[in-house]
Write a structure and sequence with these properties.
heterodimer, A: 537 residues, B: mainly alpha, two-stranded antiparallel ribbon
Chain lengths: 537, 378
């Protein structure tokens, strides 16, 4: 039995583990490229401080990466363990980018990360630099493929339902790869990762500057982070706008909920800056609007309208009623493949099959759905407004705050007096957690905003789950919470310890808190290949 | 390529990925199993860990990719097996948690309790997954209680404890033995002195164990276990439709393929011969050849399970006609073809750069080397 309790618990477990996984992903995506920039500076200028920078920020990268890998395995398992019907129903499409992600991206990233850490003494400068580049490319390619998969969940192009195999089947791979929703998501997500990493480096460097230690090291790191961060913050906003445009085409319900747009406004619609959405009355109790703005973002025109919640619901009601007939016909076909009446009936309504399946939440026998059930299903097609409205606005506000911070950081970097701007350094330090908050809010908007679907318009969340008992999920959820809490404490402890210690953790003897360089360590015969330098640097 | 051929190719490719996983991730998991026993102090343990330090992450991708490929090539198998074996999968997953953090965090703090905790974490991460995967294979050979409704939603009607039956546990021991042998043979190539002596002993012990338990399991399958056979006509190139066949449970059915195709016998023979070679070469101190022998044994053992069950992948004991086979659990023609293309392009590249990474890092890892590179190694 797919009870509501089972579905909610499965969703909770997925949301918790996915949001947790994404605590580690953005830093990996961005820091990898910052390491590339630092190491490139090293190979060009040959100044050891840039090598130390690459290695120190690389150490922090490694601490973060370990948990990214750990929590990433969960994601791969979980589609099968907890979302079995989903896996069957769309595995033909969804599985392919995941497998390609493994072949093309994970192997690259994971093989070269080993050489990044352990290959310093065994590779020449350029070879090692190439290793770092491949590691960064690999991690960003993995983001590309998983976001192609996720983009397809938001906007399922290039696939068709087959009643023989009882699943969606791929019809056009390139449509899935070049799905505008997926591409916009990819650039937006990786840019957000670059912002996260830039602020991480900027904030920790500011900490050293405020303490007046490791000045040369921190100053150089600060400058690189300011430049990279400025470009990234700009691109997050511009490309976020691009995802706004694609959202409005493929998922009007999400857009309408984000904007608390209860009814269709005359074009070009106003952007609601602030409002108190009232779910019960289906209106806003108070609102502050900027005229024309939303119409321009959402449609790139002054004459097209964006549908409001009421109009979307009415359209969906028609689709649910048609989808009901599709489900009934499909049930007959599944019993008897040669029921030609049912097959022609199915062909007529097949486009609305997903909407008919929404009724499965309220009744096993969809043909017996009452008008009340249909009404419930209609209402369920719009996600709840307030969480989306606020998550989105907070995310956007943070996005602009990052742009401002990086603009100032870059401006004073160019002027060369940022060390004197204590307020800027403090701002950067205390702002370190903010990109994470923005990124998590972004995922809430994307995934919660897609409800009640796992695959928009195709497969309702309710029937996507594995047929387990709630007790199973309570157990596994408790396990995840236990493991993840301990792991987070350990990770934060190590991260703080090494960030506080700073470049001295490399043991070069050149940095704050270290004694003079220690004598050359014992050379061990046979431990290293001929020609490899024995000392640590 | 036509649909039927692609379905067969993917059966083979999933096999290749699983064997790749056993060979590559197997040797660092085997390292984890042996770690607390072959390293007597911190420096020795670090020497052992650092033989795989630059490689374990890449190796683990064999596992991730095999999982992703099963998802893409056999979505129904992925859905049914992972949700049916829910607690076994959770246990494997949670055991795997100990690896990335164990490797990366262990030596970042100089505290004996901290370090020894992570050593045991690496032990769990090395021992539990192979046991569970072995147990899972054992249960596949026995048949698993699941059925589908008309919409192909699967329901598993067994319990976690029912998975832990004697035959499946034996399969778990075979798997653990195989992986530990693989780890021991790898460590023989990369260590010296006391550690080398201990891992060599382990190699001999575990290859004998694997040989004996594999023989025992084979005898059990031949004489004591009911296999499955398709009893209706099927269209191997048709659209996958798992309920459109009849299946009978028959004693000795898992031996049919060997009777029908004589060459199939070479698969188990390879497994036995390779295990014997592993014993021989590790006695002769030929670590490299021993490693390739045990790698071949992985292929032979996994291949034997696959060939015995072919064309079944996941037989259903409670509703045999719902059994999943190579022909009716596969993805669409387009997806299989596309993924085959991707594999043909990327697999040689992966093998190329993985080999290069091993070549760069090759050599014996000694305790002196660890002491001299305290801050930069694990």
């Amino acid at each position: 039995m797919l009870t509501e309790e089972l579905v909610d618990l499965s969703r909770l477990q997925f949301a918790a583990t996915a949001l947790y996984h994404f605590l580690f992903v953005p830093l990996t995506l961005g820091l990898a490229f910052i390491l590339v920039i630092m190491e490139l500076t090293y190979v060009i200028t040959d100044r050891p401080i840039y090598k130390d920078m690459t290695r120190f920020w690389g150490k922090l990268f490694g601490i973060n990466f370990a948990l990214g890998v750990t929590t990433g395995i969960t994601m791969e398992f979980q589609f099968g363990t907890n979302w079995a019907y989903y896996s069957h129903y769309v595995g033909d499409i969804f599985g392919a980018p995941l497998a390609i992600e493994g072949l093309m991206a994970f192997f690259l990233e994971s093989t070269f990360i080993g050489l990044f850490f352990f290959g310093w003494d065994r590779l020449n400068k350029w070879q090692h630099f190439m290793v770092t580049v491949l590691m960064a490319v690999g991690s960003n390619l993995s983001a590309l493929w998983i976001l192609i998969a996720n983009g397809w969940m938001q906007d399922p192009v290039g696939a068709e339902f087959s009643f023989v195999t009882m699943r969606m089947e791929m019809t056009d791979f390139w449509a899935i790869v070049f799905n505008p929703t997926a591409q916009a998501k990819f650039v937006h997500t990786v840019s957000a990762g670059y912002v996260t990493a830039s602020l991480f480096v900027l904030g920790i460097s500011s900490y050293y500057l405020l303490k007046g230690r490791d000045l040369g090291f921190a100053r150089r790191s600060f400058r690189i982070a300011a430049g990279f961060g400025f470009a990234s913050a700009l691109s997050v906003i511009v490309l976020g706008d691009e995802s706004g445009y694609t959202v409005s085409e493929s998922q009007q319900a999400k857009m309408a909920a984000i904007e608390a747009m209860w009814k269709t406004e005359p074009a070009p619609a106003a952007f609601t800056l602030f409002a108190l959405p009232n779910e019960a009355a289906q209106r806003n109790d108070y609102e502050l609007q900027i005229p024309y703005m939303l119409g321009l973002i959402g449609t790139r025109s002054v004459s097209e309208t964006l549908p409001g919640i009421r109009e979307i619901k009415e359209k969906n009601r028609a689709r649910i009623e048609s989808g009901m007939l599709a489900v009934v016909a499909l049930e007959k076909i599944r019993k008897n493949r040669d029921d030609w009446d049912a097959r022609s009936q199915f062909d007529l309504h097949k486009a609305d099959l997903g909407f008919g399946l929404l009724l499965k939440k309220y009744t096993v026998d969809v043909s017996q759905a009452t008008p009340e059930m249909i009404q419930q299903a209609v209402d369920s097609t719009i996600p709840r407004v307030a969480p989306l409205f606020w998550s989105f606005r907070l995310m956007v506000a943070l996005g602009f705050a990052f742009l401002l911070l990086f603009s100032l950081a870059l401006f004073y970097s160019i002027k060369g007096n940022f060390i004197e701007k204590k307020w800027l350094l403090r701002w950067a330090l205390w702002f370190i957690p903010m990109p994470w908050i923005a990124a998590e809010l972004g995922w809430v908007v994307a995934e919660y905003g897609r409800q009640p679907w796992t695959i928009y318009g195709v497969l309702p969340t309710h029937i996507s789950v594995s047929n387990l008992t709630p007790a199973n999920i309570y157990g596994s959820l408790a396990g995840f919470i236990g493991f993840y809490t301990v792991l987070l404490i350990v990770e934060m402890y190590l991260m703080t310890k090494y960030a506080r210690q700073g470049p001295a953790s490399l043991g070069t003897g050149k940095y704050h808190g270290e004694k003079a360089p220690s004598p050359s360590p014992i050379h061990s015969g046979g431990a290293l290949p001929a020609g490899a330098p024995a000392n640590r640097i | 390529m036509d649909y039927e051929t692609l379905k067969l190719v993917w059966w083979l490719l999933i096999g290749v990925l699983l064997v790749g996983f056993a060979i590559m991730d197997g040797h660092d998991m085997g390292m984890g199993v042996l770690l607390p026993f072959v390293g007597k102090n911190d420096l020795e343990r670090r020497a052992v860990i650092n033989t795989v330090a630059p490689h374990w992450d890449g190796n683990q991708v064999w596992f991730i990719t095999a999982g992703g490929a099963i998802f893409a090539a056999w979505p129904l198998v992925y859905a049914t097996a992972f949700s049916g074996f829910y607690w076994a999968m959770m246990a494997a997953l949670w055991a795997l948690f100990f690896r990335p953090v164990g490797f990366d965090y262990r030596s970042k703090i100089q505290n004996p309790t901290w370090r020894s905790t992570w050593d045991w974490g690496l032990f769990i991460g090395g021992a539990v997954p192979p046991i569970i995967f072995g147990v899972a294979f054992g249960n596949l050979l026995l048949g698993v209680p699941f059925h589908f409704n008309d919409f192909l939603m699967s329901t598993y009607t067994g319990s976690f404890w029912a998975l832990l039956n004697p035959f499946a546990l034996l399969a778990g021991v075979v798997s653990l033995g195989m992986i530990t042998t693989q780890g021991a043979n790898y460590l023989m190539m990369r260590t010296e002195g006391d550690i080398y002596r201990r891992v060599r002993t382990a190699s001999l012990l575990f290859s004998v164990l694997t040989f004996v338990t594999f023989a025992l399991a084979g005898w059990w399958v031949a004489t004591g276990i009911d296999g499955y056979a398709i009893t209706s006509a099927i269209d191997p190139g048709g659209l996958p439709d798992p309920q459109n066949k009849t299946v009978a449970v028959a004693t000795g059915a898992w031996m049919h393929n060997y009777a029908q195709y004589g060459w199939a016998m070479w698969v188990p023979i390879t497994a036995f011969a390779a295990l014997a070679a592993s014993i021989l070469f590790s006695r002769l101190h030929r670590a490299g050849v021993a490693f390739w022998s045990s790698s071949l044994a992985c292929a032979g053992i996994i291949g034997t399970a696959g060939v015995s069950m072919f064309p079944f992948i996941m037989p259903s004991s409670s509703d045999p006609r719902s059994s999943l086979t190579v022909y009716d659990a596969a993805s669409s023609h387009l997806t299989l073809g596309l993924m085959f293309g991707a594999t043909v392009i990327f697999m040689p590249l992966i093998i190329f750069y993985t080999s290069w990474a091993y070549k760069v890092m090759w050599g014996k890892v000694t305790t002196e080397y660890i002491a001299a590179n305290d801050k930069s190694v694990y």
